[in-house]
Amino acid sequence: MKAAAFDYARAGDLAEAVRLLGEGEGSAKLIAGGQSLGPMLNLRLVRVGLLVDIRRLEALRTVEEGEGTLRYGALITHSEFEDGRVPDAGNGLLRQVGGGIAYRAVRNRGTLGGSLAHADPAADWISAFTALDATLQIEGPAGRRSLPLAGGLLGAFTLDLGETEILTAVEVPRLGAGARWGWHKINRKTGEFADAIGVALLDEERGFCRVVCGAVEGPPVVLAAVAEALRAEGRQAGRALVPAAVAEALPALDPVGRHLHVVAVQRAIDQVFGR
Amino acid sequence: MSEKPEPSGTGIGVRVRRKEDRRHLQGRGRFVADLAMPGLLEVAFLRSPVAHARLTGWRKAPGAEARCFFLEDLEGLQPIVARSSLKGYKVSEWPALARDKLRYVGECVAACVAPTRAEAEDLAEACGLDYEELPAVIDPLAARRAGSPLVHESWGDNLFLETFVDGDIDAIARTAAVKVEREYATARQCMHPMEGKGLLAWWDDRADQLVVHTSTQVPHVIRTGLAECLGLEQRRVRIAPPDVGGGFGYKCILQPEELVVAWLAMTYRRPFRWVEDRREHLVAGANAREHHYKVTAYADARGRLLALDAEVTVNVGAYSVYPFTACLEAAQAGGNLPGPYDFRNYRCRTYSVASNKPPFTPYRGVARPGVCFAIELTIDAIARAVGREPAEVRAENLVPGSAMPYDNVTNKHYDSGDYPESLRRAMARIDLPAVRTRQAQGEPDGRLIGVGFSTFTEQSAHGTKVFASWGIPMVPGYEQATVRLTPEGGVEVRAGIHTIGQGLETTLAQVASEILTIPVERIGVVLGDTAETPYSTGAYASRGAVMAGGAVSRSATALAGQIKAIAAHLLQCEPAEVSFEGGRIRGGNASLDFADVGRAWYLNPEQLPDGVDARGLEATEGFKPKVDSGAFTYATHAAVVAVDPETGKVEILDYVVIEDCGTMINPMIVEGQAFGGSAQGIGTALFEESPYDAAGQPLHSTLADYLLPGPSELPSFRIEHMETPSPYTAHGIKGVGEGGAIAPPGAIVNAINDAVKGLGVEMTEIPVSPRRLLGKILAARSGTPSGLEAAE
């Protein structure tokens, strides 16, 4: 299939991009890497009146180091994380996750901001950045605002982002040098979307522990009780709580789906502690 | 196999690099989508959105009515009809565009034309359909029951054909020590050549011909079928296929889209093109493989197979394809289920069931991946029932080499080879004792190790007798080729079979080179174009190397005689003294270049002897094997897998292929066929599946939903050749195109079952997706009574 006809404009700066989105009167859409939008346009699952290309906006390609934080421009590509061309707030986690997204050709073009804005539940970044407690920076006609990722994901494919707003950057607290992480993705073959994702982070220095169950029907689920048990009582206590926590958070799962999510989270925990 | 001297030159047995690869590696191949022509219009099809409905009305795109075509507009175009002489066979009429009923999602209903594909799709979207939905026929077993909705009301049931092979089972059933009963299922699949279907058709006023550049395996057969549907004389249809990016069986059939595009070109006398996209391909196109088996096997206490009782149901979809009909699959299933095994009591009933799914096309191996899966799992089940090593039980049941040639219980004539030897070598290469030791030790990561084997025969180049017994519209006979010496001493080979990626441009040149000793670099091969080549039924059924190879051999041999007669005169010796060596012609103490003979015939006929053979330096001969029931290739595949019992994920740790396709023309190409086929077989075993919901909606419309194995899912295949020449074919060649795809589901699922046997789990349905396998493991853990679906 071929895409239906649309207009195309390349924004010269952020302000112009915001203005073009506004002029589109609801039918304009941003394109950056185009790794999800491109196929959806071709399959005619998405129609746009105007495609606003922000690929060349250098302001969205920077990484800023703050006080214990890192701020990634939305146009950083998956391969830039994979290749270690940007600092890793996750102490190696982001490099691992970025290198496991789809295929290299996709990673070369696909962007962090595009992936988070698309909010596909089975994608990797929303789980990883939920675990890292990320905050999104958003620019719109009314100015700038911040949005915590964990609260901003309203459902599958739905981020709390207005039609004329642009996700410009992602800010995350930086893990300490001694922090450990576990990332376990279950999928049928290399490069495919996940059937289950488990993320576990333990930063004893900062007293931060988070466990996430991802690739579910909606936004990634933060398993707070599991994390608390892990931090306070250790590996086995946390691990033992996973089945009940997953069952409670995701009651609609069938036994196979539930089992896969439990295994993914438990294996992520095991990785934190070294198998 | 190793006593033979190392072959030299570029003849048979040499690992010659493929001639066609230069253009393909440089991106200079020319496929349908690469063709350009002034005034070309692209075609997009409006397809049925529902599986089963009565079509009550339609509307053309407002303002563009002249560019939209429904069936009533295609004056004179006949539907696709494939007849069979098999008793009780019901004929379907497959209209180029659906008219009264919609019978599957994706069925063509209208064609829209525009200068670009996107605009043509805009028009298709702007057309409208009115229909009344009917209950869909999806499950083949339900479709057989009385009271099922009917795909073709006039039939009274949903059966294209029911066949029955009776055999004496009952006496053995009463006394056999072991009885094993199983049901097996193989998913509906979609075959995936890199290039989908497509064609460009135009009218050549000078030749007064419709010219069709279609991506096909069978150009001459398409000419016959297309001419009949269009009502044109066959001489006024030329099929000139460009490069074809793989076929696997999908491009063996005449398609409705071909009819429509050809009709447009014929009617409007301008070029039209349709290029199938991957979504059309997945939803409406290359469907295959959906089988269900009920098998009861009887064996003695050592596991010797005594009798087999089977019922095979094939879900062939809404219509019969041309020319292979809807019965080929079930006929092959019933005939090939006994496999390479030595037993004499067999009973089998087959059902070819119509449903509201796309028509079914023979796919690499045709029914044999299914039957091999069924019989190989049954052999392992027998071995487990008698408590013995499955590989040993398999070895004892195989037809022994000493029995060759051997006519099996369904009268398949196994011509040559040593089946147990291929299994023994596979056991040695996979190192069965070492695998058993490792298995007993357990893995540090908790995964379970298993090993499985699968031995099969591949009836290659099955010929006139076999196809005539099915009575289908196309029965292959003699294959012909033309071989010509050119004035400068080069060679032209022309054959009607087509090159579809299988390397025929190289292997046919090697056969000519074997006889003439001229290197393949100086041998041009022209294939497929009906205007330039002798009639051929085409590239399918692993017949290219045997049939076209045989034809080139015969023609090159005839040409060699003609060359020698002229050369003898020029060398002043007797023709019997003339020989070819390293691309030169020798006689007595002198020698000539082939160009000397070429020049004499074409440019200096005054040098020719009186009474020279007036056929000159060109020969067209035909070939058929001495026994045309097929040359039987065979192989054993062995797999070692690791199963993660917590995720259901299967990794292939080792994979061995021991194959015997008779004399190999080019071992490198044989290996390529084995590897590629095995990769597809691994897809069948573990990944590929076209699921439908109860309303007949396909749940797979992109390659994100339909998983193909990629490089990281495939093992490093280890291959070893045996080489038993067929007694019936030229040079002892047997076919090799399909075999790789046949064995993997049997070997891999046997290995999985070997791995999980301690969990009380046995897989009988493919693909063995993690979800299926984990579901069974969880069900076994929770004590659900073998409840496979408990977790679904």
Automatic annotation (TrEMBL), chain A:
One of its GO terms (molecular function) is FAD binding. It comes from the Bacteria. Keywords: FAD, Flavoprotein, Oxidoreductase. This is Carbon-monoxide dehydrogenase medium subunit. The keyword Oxidoreductase applies. Residues 1-177 form the FAD-binding PCMH-type domain. PROSITE patterns: FAD_PCMH. The lineage of its organism: Bacteria, Pseudomonadati, Pseudomonadota, Alphaproteobacteria, Rhodospirillales.
Automatic annotation (TrEMBL), chain B:
PANTHER family: ALDEHYDE OXIDASE 1-RELATED, XANTHINE DEHYDROGENASE. Keywords: Molybdenum, Oxidoreductase. It comes from Tistlia consotensis USBA 355. It comes from the Bacteria. Residues 26-135 form the Aldehyde oxidase/xanthine dehydrogenase a/b hammerhead domain. InterPro entries: Ald_Oxase/Xan_DH_a/b (IPR000674), Ald_Oxase/Xan_DH_a/b_sf (IPR036856), Ald_Oxase/xanthine_DH-like (IPR016208), AldOxase/xan_DH_MoCoBD1 (IPR008274), AldOxase/xan_DH_MoCoBD2 (IPR046867), AldOxase/xan_DH_Mopterin-bd_sf (IPR037165). The keyword Zinc-finger does not apply. Pfam families: Ald_Xan_dh_C, MoCoBD_1, MoCoBD_2. One of its GO terms (molecular function) is iron ion binding. The lineage of its organism: Bacteria, Pseudomonadati, Pseudomonadota, Alphaproteobacteria, Rhodospirillales. Transmembrane segments: none annotated. This is Xanthine dehydrogenase, molybdenum binding subunit apoprotein. The keyword Oxidoreductase applies.
